[in-house]
Amino acid sequence: MAAHPVVVAGAGQAGFDTACALRSRGFQGRITLVGDEPPGPCHRPPLSKGYLTGSVTADEVLLRPASFFAEQDIELLTGDRVASVDRDRHTVLLESGLRLPYGSLVLATGCRPRTLPVPGASLTGVLSLRGLADAEDLRLRLTGPPRQLVVVGAGFIGLEVAATARGLGHEVTVVEAQPRALARALTPVMSDRLVAEHRAQGVRLLLGREVAALHGDGGGRVHVVELDGGERIAADLVVVGIGVLPNTAPALSAGLLVGDGVVVDERLRTEDPDIYALGDCARFPGPQAGRHIRLESVQNASDQARCVAAAICGEPYAYTSVPWFWSEQYALRLQIAGLTAGHDTTVTVGDPEGGRFSVFCFRDGRLTGVESVNRPADHGIARRLLTAGTDLTPATVRQPGFDLKKLPRTAPRSAAAAGGRQSVPA
Amino acid sequence: MAKITYKHPNGTVTVVDVRAPGTVMRGAKLNNIDGIEAQCGGSAQCGTCHVYVDEANTLPLPAMDSVEDDVLYGTACERNEFSRLSCQLPISEELDGLLVHLPEAQS
Question: Reductase C-terminal domain: from which residue to which, for each copy (chain A) (predicted)?
Fold first, then answer.
């Protein structure tokens, strides 16, 4: 068992899970987890939902209490980050000035929110949402009398914040530049249903509109959002959710290949065999997509963490996990299995209006993904089918009374997963 | 506080004291027990905290709701009549001595 020191740059889900997976595999060496968010690793999904309403507390958002790190002999450095990497000397330099030696370096540096490229974007009351501190700032502003909130961007973060704020009684406008919501991530059927729900809940949701400028009240606080065409919307709070940018500075300092993420191979290794990258910041060969992709999700971070830990322990395998995602907006529990972009056929099963349905997506007659609302069995079975491989056709799904629960269970996913995880040659 | 026993497919067991408020899932995560993933963090979304409650169990478990039942259709290892999502098993004194079996795989 290898015992050289491992430095993990980034203490989000990907970095944290890597450290844990190393220990549960019996890795004996020193593990240092370097993160810039003071409280330590967080479960981020509630930050745009339950944390804002108070139904999920800060303690519950923390992935583990401080005592866990001592028990597992994981050295957690918070409030710091990796500034640069010296590949020849096998050391990293932290922003604090500390220099750490590594045998393996894991880049789990995550992403940062894009900022709005318009005048007024730095006014007080204009927020983005990524970490616990951002969520706490937003939570405090959403606690109290009704506000006039403008959300810029109808992606997952924007729509979840809109739904949560609406639930708290605030006046909410969403401005999206694309002609539909979540255009990159969802089928038109699903994005239309989400938009209809937001409107039914009283959100003013504007599609195909861009923000031209933000104006202050004279005291430096945001007051008005001006759209293209000149429309002015009163706002005392603006949340910007227009996507994220991967944090690639350490990789660039090391001279590694970067292009919308740190480029890695199927074992999540960069071109330097001692440096790995994973999670939101990594651009990896996606077997389902057939090209290099970068995914932002808990599943991707968590599954890739196990893959990297295995490689560091000398038992590498190719990363092949089927991606999945989830979101909650009002009473709609949305789950996505696989990648639905690039589909040529969709079949909708269930009752979209009633808020319980699934959209099956096919490309060239093959199932590529399933989007479900309040049909968790469809989601789980779809994940299993996509992992094992399936000959499910659009014609079958279109048959009256079709129900995935009634399909005979094919090869267990565990066996299929093991088959897809054979070691790859060095 | 309840003593929970997690039995791995290879027969090894891990016994831990889990405090309330918490769940059988959280108890495994706090002790870094391999074999429970819980990627969704305990919101009954992902089915990666699947356990088989011991067949001889007589401790009172909360009834399964329809969401948990649906999620169990998607588990990596086949569900049976003893299957539960461990995130849906809150810790109480009444669960002291619970034995759960971990499946071969969670994803």
Answer: 324-407
* Residue B107 belongs to a domain: no
Q: Residue A67: closest CA among chain B residues belongs to which residue?
A: B30
Burial of A55 (0-12, 13-18, 19+ CB in 10 A): exposed
Each residue's pLDDT tens digit, B30-39: 998 989 999 9
Q: How many CA atoms lie within 13 A of A108 on its CB side?
A: 35
State the count of interchain CB pairs (< 8 A) between A and B: 78
Question: HSE (CB half, 13 Å, CA atoms) of A48?
Answer: 24
B83: domain CATH number is: 3.10.20.30
Q: How far is CA B13 from the centre of its chain?
A: 14
- Convert the pLDDT of each residue in A272-321 to its tens digit: 999 999 999 999 999 989 999 999 999 999 999 999 999 999 999 999 99
Q: Is the ipTM of this complex over 0.95?
A: no
Q: Which domain holds residue A266?
A: 6-112+245-312
Q: Is A140 in the same domain as A237? A: yes
Residue A317, domain member (yes or no): no
CB-CB contact of A251 with A243 (8 Å):
no
A321, A335, A377 ranked by CB distance to B73: nearest: A377
In chain A, residues with a C-beta closer than 8 Å to the C-beta of B78 are 409, 412
